[in-house]
Every structure is written in structure tokens, then in C-alpha cells.
Design a protein that fits this description.
Elements (H helix, E strand, L loop, with lengths): L8 E4 L7 E5 L30 H12 L3 E4 L21 E2 L2 E2 L8 H26 L7 E8 L2 E2 L2 E2 L4 E4 L7 H9 L6 E3 L11 H7 L5 E7 L6 H19 L20
Keywords: Hydrolase
GO molecular function, one term: hydrolase activity
Protein name: Putative N-formylglutamate amidohydrolase
């Protein structure tokens, strides 16, 4: 595929007046042809270092069930990570979970800027435009960002089935964790296995700064690694997301301070 016809994002249309937007930063493991395999073996692109396993399918299924718009990232995070700020040193990784990415090192400033301009920024423009379209009625949309995580880190098992990540805006977090835990059959992490306060990431940029209700939901990859797992989690999450979306307080603009420090002027 030629660079000129590589689409860095995909927008799934839905009811833009419905009040909800889904995001999937790491939905795909694809690379433009000009980058080959970045010096990595083929199996690296089946690992979590390349994309969030199961999230493309889960996002598509939820968007279909809920009839809501969604934005998918179409390039591998190994090329450039859309869930990092432009000045984040981990934006383009040289080593990822033990894998040396020779196609990313050394890298010139020209190439760094090219990846920002050609892939990272167009994705974020698509997110911005989709959220803007969903807020045309004057009320804030509910933004839910979907990710997945590995069942082990190194050799340490991760007991959580899902994790809810957040900075200081807990408006969505509290009812979402409550609803996820209600059946009593899964372990839900609160800012586990990661901390949700990351300066410049997607939620910071598109939700924290403008005061839009949001959260980032991580699902363990082995639970959504096949079609049945995806369907099971879509059926689990869809009614919860519907309940959240029906709450008028989750459609109000309110700016919360970030644990990462003051917002840019």
C-alpha cells in the first residue's frame, strides 16, 4: 500500500445526536508499505506491542449495538502512538517490551515530524471532529475510550478482568465501576493496571481540557481474543454504557484539574 492511500483513521458513523462517542486509539496493527516491518518479526504484530488485541472487534460491535459513532486508529502503535502527547518521549518506541524496533532507531527529526503530520495528527483531527459533531446540540457527549491489556506483565499475573483509568474527573468512573462490579463475577481495577493521568494523551487532550465527561476502559486481552469473547463483553458493556448515557449529569461540561499539572495556556 502506498503512503498516500494509507488511511490513518476510520470513522464509524452512528447517531451523532445520541450523546456518545467511542474511541479506539490502538485498534489496528497495520503499517504503511514504506515502513516494511520496522525490522520486527511477523509475530511481533500479533502481540500487544503492536495494537490492543480484541479492541477493534469490541468497538465495532458496541458501535453497532448502540448506534453511536466511533473513531478507530488504523496504524500500529509501533509506528507512532496516538495515545501519547506530541512531546512524549515514548511517542515512537525504540524498544517495546523487549522487542528492539530497529526501524525506529535511529530516527531523524524529519521522519519524526513526518509521522506526526501524516498519521498522529490526522487521527486526532478525526477524534476532534467526531466529538465536535456529537456535541452540536450544545450538550457534552459521553466519550468512552477502549483499550486492552495483557493477562501477565513479565511473569506477574494481572488479576483484573477490566480496569477503569482516569485522572481527576470521576463523573463517569464511579458509576461505571459500580455497574461493572454489580454482577460480582469480575475483578475491576480502579486506575489498574495503569494510572489514567497521562499528560497529552487522548483523554487529556480531547476530554480533560474541554471538560467533557469521559473515561478509559481497559479489558484484559485474553477475554476478548476471539469472536465469542468480543460478543460476551459487548453484551456486558452495552447496557452499562446505555445507562451511563441516560444520565444528564454526564452530558455537562465541567473542567477538572489534572494530576499531571496545569493545562497549557
Amino acid at each position: 500500500m502506498d503512503t498516500d492511500d494509507f488511511q490513518p483513521f476510520e470513522i464509524i458513523d452512528g447517531d451523532y445526536d445520541g450523546g456518545m462517542v467511542l474511541l479506539a486509539d490502538h485498534a489496528m496493527n497495520r503499517l504503511p508499505a514504506r515502513y516494511g516491518d520496522l525490522g520486527l518479526p511477523e509475530d511481533a504484530f500479533r502481540r500487544h506491542i503492536a495494537f490492543d488485541i480484541g479492541i477493534e472487534g469490541l468497538t465495532r460491535r458496541l458501535a453497532d449495538i448502540l448506534n453511536v459513532p466511533a473513531v478507530l486508529g488504523c496504524f500500529s502503535r509501533l509506528l507512532i502512538d496516538p495515545n501519547r502527547g506530541e512531546d512524549d518521549p515514548t511517542l515512537i518506541m525504540k524498544i517495546s517490551d523487549g522487542a528492539i524496533v530497529s526501524g525506529n532507531h535511529p530516527i531523524t527529526q524529519e521522519e519524526w515530524d513526518f509521522r506526526l503530520t501524516t498519521y498522529h495528527r490526522p487521527y486526532h483531527r478525526a477524534v476532534e471532529q467526531t466529538i465536535s459533531r456529537a456535541s452540536a446540540s450544545g450538550r457534552a457527549p459521553l466519550v468512552l475510550s477502549l483499550h486492552s491489556f495483557t493477562p501477565f506483565w513479565r511473569e506477574t499475573p494481572r488479576p483484573w478482568h477490566a480496569g477503569v483509568l482516569w485522572d481527576t474527573d470521576d463523573r463517569v468512573v464511579v458509576p461505571l465501576i459500580e455497574q461493572l462490579r454489580l454482577p460480582g463475577d469480575i475483578v475491576v481495577g480502579d486506575n489498574e493496571p495503569y494510572d489514567g493521568a497521562l499528560r497529552g494523551d487522548t483523554m487529556y487532550r480531547h476530554c480533560m481540557i474541554p471538560g467533557i465527561p469521559h473515561t478509559l476502559l481497559e479489558v484484559r486481552q485474553d477475554l476478548i481474543g476471539d469472536e465469542q469473547g468480543i460478543e460476551d463483553w459487548a453484551q456486558r458493556l452495552a447496557p452499562i454504557f446505555t445507562t451511563l448515557n441516560a444520565d444528564p449529569t454526564l452530558h455537562e461540561y465541567k473542567i477538572f484539574p489534572s494530576r499531571t499539572g496545569p493545562y497549557p495556556a
